[in-house]
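Morning F.,

Quick status update on the modeling queue. The single chain you submitted on Monday has been processed. Sequence for confirmation:
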Amino acid sequence: MAFPTNEALERLVEPVANTHGMDVEAIRTVKAGKKSQVVIALDSDTHPTLDELEAVSNELSQLFDDAEERGEVNFGAGYTLELTTPGVDLPLTAARHFRRNRGRKVKVGDQLWRLGPLNADETQVALVRATKKDEEIRISSVSELSGAVVEIEFNAPLAAETLLADRAFEDLEAAATAGKENK
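Structure tokens below.
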């Protein structure tokens, strides 16, 4: 049996992650001589703690060892399992990514926005930004923004921008519509 593909690993990992309320965000494998490496990025709405990642890691180690013993997978001479959370460089591609990063600054194309709330069915997201004199609100479909990336901020965000991002989606949508009508 060959070294498992990322898809095969995801099929093994996903049920365990789901029982812990987590999503599999990425799997990376490095096949090396004596020790291969399996790196799995997990996330959840509450962002996993080290203790929670350790519990999942223990379950996955046992699962992988049992699957290897049954001949379902082959990690070669051995493997190192590493569980992590996705970094800020993970492109936002799913509604859950936008929901989990609400209030953070994101780069959309060549513009910077702050993520506001999603609508009820999580198909649209409010993007906001504020200056000293004005506020800007943009409602976009999540699919349009696929690939947006979180920007690391070294300064505290503008209070007006934080207040905008904290507002309800319906309020921001109404404000965005009213703003278009006034122009």
